[in-house]
Specification:
Layout lengths: L1 H6 L4 H11 L2 E3 L11 E3 L1 H20 L4 E3 L8 H7 L1 H4 L1 E6 L6 E3 H12 L12 H10 L16 E4 L2 E4 L9 E4 L4 H6 L1 H8 L5 E10 L14 E11 L4 H18 L7 E5 L9 E9 L2 E12 L1 H10 L5 E3 L5 E3 L2 E8 H12 E5 L8 E5 L10 E5 L6 H12 L5 E3 L5 H10 L4 E5 L1 H6 L1 E6 L5 E5 L3 H10 L8
Parallel strand pairs: 3-9, 19-20, 19-21
Antiparallel strand pairs: 1-2, 4-5, 4-6, 7-8, 9-10, 10-16, 11-12, 12-13, 13-16, 14-15, 17-18, 21-22, 22-23
Length: 480
């Protein structure tokens, strides 16, 4: 029985196969051999990602009166990245194998070794100096994952920003960077947002956009890529209130994942022992991927570092005059929540994936199903005529058209009804509507529920309201 269970466990390879087969994610430039670290989101992947983003945006802005939105440019003045510390500090520790020229992040090389050899280092890896990392690798005879040899260069810093030039002349004044994070656009627009929208502290600014990082090594599918989308919110507050607000946002962000079906047993808090140069405190929300617990979102207390730095480098005063506090002037502290949209998508796919034995007679009949929350699923309703003939296909098309204004729909008339149900299960469609001969007689249709496979009969006139009611009442099922 243990082997049977193992054979039907979610793995990263199964997720990758499903994504390619059903149009969630494709390898970028695959016909040319593929581009490392880059992925294309197919028809279903686009909608799943869009729905996750929409759920996040609603949670952060619509449900919070004190959070507004922004869409800042990818290209910013190069001095902004000097002020933020990215030019000097935004790097990873890199080490090369002298035998095969493979390159690795030294900290990840150590972490992978410790995980596979059950070794606990004397101090956390993220607090080690370059010299301490190299010493650990040599003392523990960490082998190169590519060639198996143990001959490495020293550890050195590798800056993660993509650098280019804007305009026809390449010189020091034309240098620009592809942004490595979206938050700096929020900080440089802080004064404009306060003035134009009459914002009062405390308030937040939310943004979703692409960021770019020239990673040393790309791995684990869409988990670590050179271009990705961030969902970030910077919450500006009065110094002295930041600790309380930090804890509030930690709670809110944790509950967001529970709300959309992530099991609490698969979530974990990771506290940063070594803080970034701007941080007072920092936690990561981690998810139990098939590759282990990994970060999906960071919640950071960034203090007043960013606004103070931009004041210093720009010469523009980024302080705030608090009219509700006797016109007290101060530089606000910032609580940041920063989630990876691509990683969120991978998390929701892994959480939803199940190979379920639906046989009731003791035999084996496995279906692959994605238990995606209906508000996240790329297709909400599939309309299936039981037969193509006798006007059923035309009737089904009419009903699909009626549903389109309220739901994302699919229409499928190919194959047996059982095979069509399985196809919809595999892409996470929560509701299938079957049109049969009885529909022609009394105007009723069958709704089939993905998770329970239960079927109910409802009138065509009540179909939209019944599905809306089911979406609102949805509860994530326990996997068998």
């Amino acid at each position: 029985m243990a082997n049977e269970k193992d054979n039907h466990t979610c793995t990263l390879d199964k997720i990758i196969s499903l994504c390619k087969r059903r149009g969630f994610v494709y390898q970028s430039s695959e016909i040319y051999g593929g581009q490392a670290g880059a992925w294309d989101y197919g028809p279903l992947g686009v909608d799943l990602k869009k729905n996750i983003q929409a759920a996040w945006w609603k949670e952060m802005t619509q449900l919070h009166d004190d959070v507004v939105g922004l869409d800042a440019a990818i290209f910013m003045h190069h001095t902004a990245w000097e002020a933020s510390g990215h030019v000097a500090h935004f790097s990873d520790p890199m080490i090369d194998c002298k035998e095969c020229s493979s390159r690795f992040r030294a900290d990840q090389l150590i972490e992978d070794f410790c995980g596979s050899h059950n070794v606990v280092p004397e101090k956390p890896v993220d607090t080690m100096s370059h010299e301490e990392m190299k010493a650990f690798i040599e003392e523990n005879e960490v082998a190169c994952p590519t060639c198996g040899k143990r001959n490495y260069t020293d550890v050195r810093e590798f800056n993660l920003m993509f650098k280019t030039h804007l305009g026809p002349v390449a010189n020091d004044t034309s240098v620009v960077y592809l942004r490595p994070e979206t938050c700096q656009g929020i900080f440089v627009d802080f004064r404009s947002i306060v003035q134009s929208n009459r914002m009062k502290i405390p308030f937040g600014v939310a943004q979703v956009g692409k960021s770019f990082r020239n990673e040393i090594i790309f791995k684990n599918f869409i988990f670590r890529t050179c271009e990705f989308e961030q969902m970030e919110m910077e919450y500006f507050c009065k110094p002295g209130t930041d600790d309380e607000i930090f804890e509030r946002w930690r709670k809110d962000r944790w509950n967001f994942y529970l709300k959309y079906g992530i099991s609490e047993k698969n979530l974990n808090w990771h506290h940063h022992d070594k803080l970034a140069h701007y941080a007072k405190d920092a936690y990561d929300i981690q998810y139990r991927f098939p590759i282990g617990f990994e970060e999906i979102e960071g919640i950071h207390n960034r203090t007043d570092f960013d606004l103070s730095q931009h004041t210093k480098y720009s010469g523009k005063d980024m302080s705030y005059v608090d009219q509700d506090d006797n016109n007290n002037r101060y530089t606000p502290y910032v609580i940041e929540t920063s989630a990876g949209l691509n990683r969120n998508m991978l998390m929701f796919l892994c959480e939803a994936y199940e190979e379920e034995n639906v046989a009731t007679d003791g035999t084996e009949d496995y279906r692959t199903v994605l238990h995606l929350h209906p508000k996240l699923a790329p297709i909400t309703v599939a309309v299936l005529p039981i037969m193509k003939k006798d006007g059923l296909a035309e009737l089904a098309k009419e009903i699909q058209h009626e549903l389109k204004d309220d739901f994302v729909t699919d229409y499928d008339q190919s194959g047996t009804i059982g095979k069509r149900y399985r196809r919809q299960d595999e892409v996470g469609t929560p509701f299938c509507v079957t049109i049969d001969y009885q529909t022609k007689e009394d105007g009723t249709v069958t709704i089939r529920f993905r998770d329970s496979m239960e079927q109910i009969r409802v009138s065509r006139a009540d179909l939209i309201s019944e599905i809306q009611k089911a979406v609102k009442a949805y509860k994530q099922p326990e996997k068998k």
